[in-house]
Design a protein that fits this description.
alpha+beta; 9-stranded antiparallel β-sheet; globular
């Protein structure tokens, strides 16, 4: 069992304005996070969790209401990365890292226009870096650069699994043993493609969480919070820091440590 991530990020909007927009759109409950100095306000709604259509609609509505850029991310089971880039209510770009996943087809990523996304990044080489991230080249197992261990990401995923396991096992009696789940995570991060791989499948060398955190870095979104979701935060499992929880009863600060 991998990561299940759903979040949105609004650039250059005051958190109070974001909260007002979420309330006007009836997007509650939701967590909102923005550290001092950050350009992006991060939003973790309970609604549209792992819902591609629902998250896209929410991103459109929020961008139109605030007249600001919004990027929305979904990671499904550490296997697929989706994003929607919307500015002033208009969809500029979208991306699916594994469009054949649910039909068990090996297909290259769709969408993901580096020239469009680069306009929202500061790095001079953003276009080239985005091209490699979104449409990775084909590698063999002998490519040492592609096999660098992703220890920080792996440990983050392991931590979330360990923290959420007691509640998950209580709610779902058929949940596999924790050791089995952790072993599956280790397997996915082992980076052992077939030495003769010559097709799009070898693009799995670029881990989904790795792509997401690298995209966040280029955009200026904190890499830790970009891996969070409402469910993780509600269980106290998210990136440490101060958030605001918006619900039907009002607002309250939540500190994660």
């Amino acid at each position: 069992m991998g990561s299940f991530i759903t979040n949105l990020h609004v650039r250059d909007a005051e958190p109070a304005a974001v909260i007002d927009a979420l309330r006007s759109l009836a997007v509650v409950p939701a967590y909102v996070r923005r550290a001092p100095g950050d350009r992006w306000t991060s939003i973790y709604p309970e609604a549209a969790f792992q819902d591609e259509v629902g998250l896209s609609e929410l991103g459109h509505a929020l961008s139109a209401a605030l007249q600001r850029p919004v990027i929305a991310f979904i990671v499904h089971d550490s296997d697929i990365l989706l994003y929607f880039l919307i500015d002033r209510g208009k969809l500029l770009d979208s991306y699916n890292s594994a469009p054949g996943y649910f039909t068990e087809q090996t297909l290259p990523p769709t969408g993901g226009q580096p020239d469009v996304l680069a306009a929202y990044c500061k790095a001079d080489d953003a276009h080239d870096r985005l091209s490699r991230l979104l449409h990775p080249p084909i590698h063999s197992r002998n490519d040492a650069d592609a096999q660098q261990p992703q220890n920080a990401i792996l440990e983050g995923v392991r931590k979330k699994i360990i923290q959420s396991y007691p509640k998950m096992a209580a709610q779902h009696p058929d949940t596999p043993p924790l050791e089995q789940l952790l072993a599956e995570i280790e397997r996915r991060f082992a980076l052992r493609p077939d030495a003769q791989a010559t097709g799009p499948a070898s693009a799995t060398l670029f881990l989904v969480e790795d792509r997401l955190t690298a995209l966040a870095e280029l955009l200026g979104i904190p890499s830790g919070p970009v891996l969070d979701s409402f469910r993780y935060l509600a269980n106290g499992e998210g990136e440490p820091g101060l958030l605001t929880l918006i619900d039907s009863d009002g607002e309250k600060d939540v500190a994660l440590s």
